[in-house]
Specification:
The complex is a heterodimer of chains A (about 400) and B (about 280). Chain A has 15 helices and ten strands. In chain A, helix 7 crosses helix 8. Chain B is of the alpha/beta class and about 280 residues long. In chain B, strand 5 and strand 6 form a beta hairpin. In chain B, helix 2 crosses helix 4 and helix 4 runs parallel beside helix 5. Classes of the chains: A alpha/beta (about 400), B alpha/beta (about 280). Chain B: This is DNA polymerase. Chain B: InterPro entries: DNA_repair_put, DUF4130. Chain B: It comes from Rhodobacter aestuarii.
Chain lengths: ~400, ~280
Amino acid sequence: MAQKALSEKLAILADAAKYDASCASSGGERRNSRAGKSLGSTTGAGICHAWAPDGRCISLLKILLTNFCIYDCAYCINRASSGVERARFTVEEVVTLTLEFYRRNYIEGLFLSSGIIRSPDETMADMVRVARTLREREHFRGYIHLKTIPDAAPELIAEAGKWADRLSINVELPTEDALSSLAPEKSVHTIHGAMAEVKARGEAAKDRTKRGTRAPRFAPAGQSTQMIIGADPASDGEILHRSARLYGDYALRRVYYSAFSPIPDASKMLPLIRPPLVREHRLYQADWLMRNYGFDAPEIAAPGKNLDLEIDPKLAWALANRQHFPLDVNRAPREMLLRVPGIGTRSVERILKARRYRTLRYEDLVAIGCVIRNAEPFITLPGWSPRGLPDDANLRARFAPPPEQLSLF
Amino acid sequence: MQVVLPRIGTVAAWRKEARRLAAAGVAPEAVIWSVGTAAPDLFAAALPTAAGAVALTLPRVAVEGLETALMHSDPERFARAYALVLRLSRRELRWGDRSDPMMRRVLDQEKAVRRDIHKMHAFVRFREVTPPGANRRAFAAWFEPDHHILEAGAPFFARRFGDMDWLIATPTLTARFECGEMQISETCDTRPPPADATEHLWRVYFANIFNPARLMVQAMQSNMPRKYWKNLPEADLIPELIRSAPARVAAMREAEAQMPDPRLQKRLSAIAAQRIKD
């Protein structure tokens, strides 16, 4: 077979990587190369260097080492039975691309994933070699995210964590049944086992040894995972319950939700649908509520229930739990303020700070940056009283888009 | 009276002048601020009076916030900041109180400057200009910020690209990093650096990482406004990617409906049979 040019390989292997939602380059340690001997820095915050017309940010060079794969996961463009064009990068090619893109300030670093060739261990070893070359030979201090192969040997995972900032292992589908029918070679137990391994090593790396020396570095930006939404019939309640468990049991930094979108050469087992983008958006909102607003998964969506697609989950919760409202903005505790629609974490901090000096009025909330229209029915303060609004039976209609006449044609 | 601030080190000079004026008890409305070489002010008085002197004491966040807001392009910023520090020092106002219109204006300008700096860190695109035989690689970029942020934005690049020489030129100032030393000077060459072969690979990547099934142009434009496009090597691909997306998705659907998948079906039925046996 003729050797493909670098740009052809890049086209194939970037195309194959675009179904991974994560492009985060945040978290972890701060490094720089000011001393002049190396290249790269991480600030802890992450930077998006470009946006594609799909509205997603491009922060990392997100590519596959190869899209040859011996697995046959029905939802995946690279599955063994797919007719997609195949290519394979060498370790040197990935290293060069990463460094040349980085030097021109196109990217924050590398997100490397791979199809499984020959065996999980050999594939993982190749990925680790890329990360090691970047760090040891090229003195690269930018961000590296490695997609970990769950069946790979623990020593390889340990070495991956030594070089990478973040590791991720995809749970792929929200339920075990869906995984075993759509991804016959993968198993929930192996995936969870690998996550537990990453968590344990991450914790060990934060400890000091008995003599007070630091333990070896291990993926300082933690681990994340991804679930495909809409390829199987799982409800949002189940999905959020699963996420809550993943956050709790394996200390994940993020769970990404990826709306299943049509792929070239798709398997016939999967629905011919438009990607459920609104549902994906609502799940991210719900996930945010769990991580930053103190909500529990069952409060947002009970098992077997789906999220309301027309209004956001926080508003839906407030409408369903009106006994807590209206809330006195000048007296309510932080955890209740966080539950008011239209008031975000930053607004809550500003309210708490301003409250120390004086009583807040309605106009102040506008200045603070609250989305006042959403908050109005749920709050009371000088200058505003919601009167009967909290008990109004038609309150939902104030927020939901107007009902639409179905088209006859 | 008139105060002329230098083009380089503007904020630090403002700080020094503000202290001096406050110590002399000069009222905010009596000062005309400008940058560079201003035309002489016919009504400028020479000597300030010493009555009503104010010692400037500000919390740290206020100093940082003000110094950031002072990089804004608004020509009124120096006068506003001086009036504000006097009020803050006399305890007439609390830093961060958004109910005060002047305070809010400064906070909003601070935010705009921070965003501009962040966008600079994201959208500067270097092109290689290494001279033959050099032992350090050299890169250059042309960038057009909204505000006067080059001095505040450039140290980031010094921390990131420590092992190479680089230059970032803006319409007013240029930052130059050579052998580990950074310098700011006035811009003399306003031509963008010549194109670089690696840009082709970057454009290939940009076109292929885009998923046509999830077209969301609004989300892209709010984060990457059009004003930046002309200096981004990948941006001229965008209109064609948007235009061809629906046809690409339709083609995927067509192919989907026709594709038989015997290997997968066979494997799945084998797994199902195995399950029943277990």
